[in-house]
Amino acid sequence: MKKAFEKPGTLLLSRGLTYALKRHRSQLLLLALLLAGSGASAQSTFPTNGIAEPKEGCYAFTHATIIRDAQNTISNATLVIRDGKITDVGPSAAIPKDAVVVDCKGKYIYPSFVDIYSNYGLGDAKKGGFNWNAAPQFLSNTKGAYGWNQAIKSEVDAVKLFNTDGAKAAPLRSVGFGTVLTHQQDGIARGTATLVTLADERENTVILREKAAAAFSFDKGTSTQNYPGSLMGVIALLRQSFLDGQWYKNRPAKEGVNLSLQAWNDNLQLPQIFAVSDKWEAVRADKVGDEFGVQYIIKGAGNEYQRINDMAATKASFILPVNFPSAIDVEDPADARFVALSDMKHWEMAPTEPAAFEKANIPFCLTASDLKDVKQFLANVRKAIEYGLSEQKALEALTKTPATLIKAYDKVGSLEPGKLANFLITSGPVFNENSVLLQNWVQGNKYVIKNDGWNDLRGTYAVSLSNGNTYTVEVKGSPDKLQATVLGKDTLSGKIDINDKLVTLMLPQAKGSNTGLRLNGLISKDQWMGTGVDSSNSSLRWTAVLSKPYQEKADSAKKKPAPQVGALYYPFNGYGWDKLPQQQDILIKNATVWTNEKEGKLENTDVLIRGGKIAQIGKNLAAGNARVIDGTGKHLSAGIIDEHSHIAISKGVNEGSQSVTAEVRIADVVNPEDVNIYRQLSGGVTASHLLHGSANAIGGQSQLIKLRWGQNAEEMKVAGADPFIKFALGENVKQSNWGDRNTVRFPQTRMGVEQIYMDAFTRARDYEKEGAGKRRDLELDALVEILNSKRFITCHSYVQSEINMLMHVADTFHFHVNTFTHILEGYKVADKMKAHGAGAGTFADWWAYKMEVQDAIPQNAGIMSQVGVVTAINSDDAEMARRLNQEAAKSIKYAGLSEEDALKMVTLNPARLLHVDNRMGSIKVGKDADLVLWSDDPLSIYAKAEKTLVDGIVEFDREYDLQLRQRIAAERSRLISKMLNEKKKGGQVEKAAFHQDEMYHCEDLQGGHQHDVIQ
Fold first, then answer.
1. Which parts of 675-814 fold into alpha helices (H)?
2. Buried/exposed 156-179: b ≥16 CB within 10 Å, e otherwise
3. Fewer CB atoms near the end CB (10 Å): N or C, the chain?
C-alpha cells in the first residue's frame, strides 16, 4: 500500500473501487460531495467507542388518517420523515426509495402533545423552606453575587440542571406528550425554563431551546429567609424586583454585580409563566404584570371557572390542569357533615373548566402537571370533553396553543415539513374512549406504547372445528382489550387473549356451563388456525375466518349530552348568589330613622333610594316605580362601619419579618369570598377597614372595602378613599411575646421602637430629596406619602407613654397620627390626643388579656368621646363585628352616653376617622345608601338586622337567608347522593377532610389563629 493512503483524511480504496473510480469518476465525485454534506451535518464532538454506525432513518407512514393540526385532517395520506424531521405529508407525498414503509391503514396520526408546565428532568426542589422554630434570617444565604432575597432565583437556568430521565419520560409519552417546557419549580422568581423533547437521547440532542420562558409563582419555596412571610409580602417583593431591575439597567456602582437582577432583566424578553394556586391569585398575578407592562401566561389552579368573567378580563392565556378532584367519601354521616358545600360543588363542576374557557374565548392549553398519576391524563381530558369541551379545542390546547405561547410552533405542535418528527399513531380518534395510543415517535425515534391493537382484530368470525361443528364468534371491545362473544340461540361471553401472533380462546358451549372450547393457535393474514380441546377434553383442530369487519355503532359515535351540574354561586359557597343582585330604586316606608344628623331620630319616616344614593327623606313619599319595603315598627340606621377589621384577607395579616414593611398592601390580598363578609352583613356591617396586623412598628397599607357580597376584590374597594397605613406599638412590636428565638430583630425594647420611627422618617425625608435616577423604594414611597399628608396612620397602641412618644415623633416630622386603635389607656391622654388631632378606635370592654392592658377600663370610650376625641368602637375580630351595635350600646351603661352618640361610635364616627363621612355614616340626602333595617332599637340585644343595603342593593335579607339555608340543605343532599352513587359504581373516592378558613386578629401571623368554618 502506498504511503499516500496513510495520510490523515485520505480515503482508503480497494482495488475494485479504484477500478470503478476510473470508469465512473464523475458519478463518484457527485456521490462524495453528497456524502460529505451529509457527514458534515451529522458530525458531533462526542467520540465513538467502536465502529461508527451513522443512522439517518427514513420512514414513510402510508394510508393513514393524518390530523395535521386541529383544523386539518387528511384521509388516506402519507407522512414521510427523515433524520428526525418531517419532510413531506399529504395524500400524494412521494415515498423515497430508501424509506422504510409502515402501512397505517385504519390508523390515525396526530402531532405529539406539548406540555408547557413541567419539571421533567429536574425533579422536585430540595426539601427546605422557612422554619418557624429557627432563628430569624434576614438576608439570603445563597453564596455568590446574587440578590438579597433567597426566593428571587432569576439566575437559575433549567437548561443547566436538566438531565434526561427515561423513567419519567415513558409515562408522559404513554399519554401522548412528545415535548415539555420544564423549569425548577422553586421560589417566587424561578428563573428560566428549557424546552426539551421526551426522547431517550443525550441531553444535547433533546434540548430544543435553552431559554424558552421565565417562570414565577407566589410560593417562596425552599427559601429559609423570613421575608416575605405573607402573600402581600410576596407581591410587594415582586413589585420591588421589577423596579430594582429597571434601576439596575444603568449598573449603579454601589450595587456592584447583581446576577439576580441582571437575569431578571434578561428574562423579560421571554414568555412569562406565572403559577397560581387559586382563581383570585390569577387576578392578582395579572394585576402585578399590568403594572409593569407584562402579560403573564397563567398556570391555573383548576377553580378559575368559578369566576370566568374575571379570568377573561385578565386578557391572559392560561395553562389548565386536569387534576379533577375525586368524589369525597361521605358514606359516614359524621364525616359528611364536615365537608363544605363548596368542596362538593367543586368536585362536580371542576371538569367544566376547560369548556368554560372555550365558551369564553379565553386562550388555554392543558397540562399533566398536578396529577398524582400521569396515566390519568387522557381519561381526564376525555372527561372534560364529556363536560362540554370540544375535541377540536382539546387537540388545539395540546398542540398548537402551547407551542405558540412559547414561540415554538416552528418546531412542534403540528405535522408540517421542517418540523420535528413528533407524532402519535393511534387506533382511532385520539379522544375516543376505545382508541388506543399505539406509538409515540419523538424526534424520529419510535416508542411503542402498546403492541396489542396495532392490527384491529375486531369483527365477526366463522369458527370451524375438525369435528364438524361451527360457531359464530364476535370479537369486540377496544383494539387492545378484546372481548369474545359466541352468537347463537343464547349470547355467551367467552375470553380471548392475544400475544403478538398467538391467540387463545375460551368459548362456552351452553348457557350456565363452566366448560367449553379451549383453543389456541396462530393469527395469519387471512385466517386463524390451531388446535384445542372441547368440553370433554377431546383434541381438535380449528380455523377462524373473518366474515364481517367490526364497525362502530352509529349511536356510540354521537356526542353524549354533557352531565347536569348545579348552578355557580357568587361567591362560591352556600350563601352565594346564583345571580348577582342589581341596583334598584327602593322606598323604605314608615320606619324610625336614626339619621345621625341634627334631625336626630325621625319617627314614621320614609327614605327613598335612587341610583344607590339617598334621594329623599320625609313622610308619605311617592314610590313611583321603586320597590317598597314596609318599615312599620322597625328602625333604619346608617350601615355599621368597622374601623379595625381583619376579615377578607388572604394568606397572612402580618408581614412581620421586618420592623418596617410599609411597602406591603392589604389591597393586594383582599379575599372577596370570605364568608365573614356575609355574616357581618347579617349584623348590619356595610364597610370594613382592613388593617395589617401589629407585628412590626410600621406595617402595611390598609384597604377600606364595602361588603358588596359576590363582587370581586376590586369592586369591593371604596374608590377615592384616602389611603391609610398600620403602625404598632408595644409588646408585639418588640417581640416580647414571640418566644426565645425572636431576640434578633431590632427593636427589642420600647426605646428601640422610637428609634425605628425616627430612622424610618429620616430615611424617607432624605429619599424625597434625592434627584433623578434614584432607586425607587416602595417602602420609602409610602413613608413620604405620610410626611406629605397623603397617607394616614392607624396605630395599634395601649400604653400612654408610647402614645405620647409617637405623637412626639409625628410632631418632629410635621405629620399627625390619624387614629390610635385599641388605645386602652386613651382615657389617660385624651387631652393630648385632642390637641394633636388624633382620633380613637377602641374596644368597649376588653381588658386583662395581656400585661400592657392591665389599666384598661370600660369607661375609656366614653371619656375620650366626652373630651372631644372622635371615638369609634371597632372589632379586631370576625365574630365581634357581627354585634358591633351591642358593643356600642355598652358605653350607654358604662359612660352614660346618649343612644344617638353611642350609635355614632359604629357609624358616623368611624366614617369621620376614615375621611368618608361626606358619603357614609349617616342618613342624609346625597349620601351612599348604606343602610340597615332593624327589627328593634338597633342598640337592643334583641335587635336583628332584617335587611342590609350597600349602595342601595339589598346584600342581606333575613327572609332570603332562610331560603338559602333550605337551598344549602337540598344541594348538600343532592351532592351527597351523587357521591355515594359514584362510590357504588367503583369510582375513586377520597377521605372526607375538614375545611378550614383563616380568621385573623391583630397579632396573628399567617396560619396562627384559625376557626373551623363550614360553608
1. 675-681, 713-716, 750-769, 778-787, 800-812
2. bbbbeebebeeebbeebbbbbbbb
3. N
Give one word for 251, left, alpha or beta, with left for phi > 0 and alpha for psi -120 to 50. left
**Helix (H) or strand (E) segment spanning residue 947:** strand 945-950
Q: ω before 747 within 30° of 0 (cis)?
A: yes
Amino acid at position 500, single letter: D
Neighbours of 965 (CB within 10 A): 12
**Rounded CA gap, 128 and 223, in Å?**
7
**CA–centroid distance for 54 within its chain:** 47
* Distance of alpha carbon 895 from alpha carbon 859, whole angstroms: 5
Confidence of residue 127 (pLDDT cuts 50, 70, 90): low
| Predicted pLDDT at 46 | 82
Cell 354521616 sits at which residue? 333
Examine the pLDDT at 1004 and tell me if it is beyond 70: no
Whole-angstrom Cα distance, residue 437 to residue 431? 10
Give pLDDT tens digits for 62-95: 999 999 999 999 999 999 999 999 999 999 999 9
Average pLDDT, the chain: 91
Q: How deeply is 318 buried, as exposed, middle or buried, from its count of CB atoms within 10 A (0-12, 13-18, 19+)?
A: buried
Bridge partners of 589, per DSSP, are: 630
Of 622, 708, 599, nearest to 929 by C-alpha is 708
E strand segments, 823-923: 839-842, 871-873
What is the Cα 669 distance to its own chain's centre?
A: 14
Contact between 279 and 310 under an 8 Å Cβ cutoff? The reply is: yes
Confidence of residue 513 (pLDDT cuts 50, 70, 90): confident
pLDDT at 10 over 50: no
For 98, phi and psi rounded to 5 degrees? Answer: -90, 10
Length of the chain: 1015
Among candidate residues 627, 619, 639, the one with its CA nearest the CA of residue 586 = 627
Cell readout for 617 is 327623606
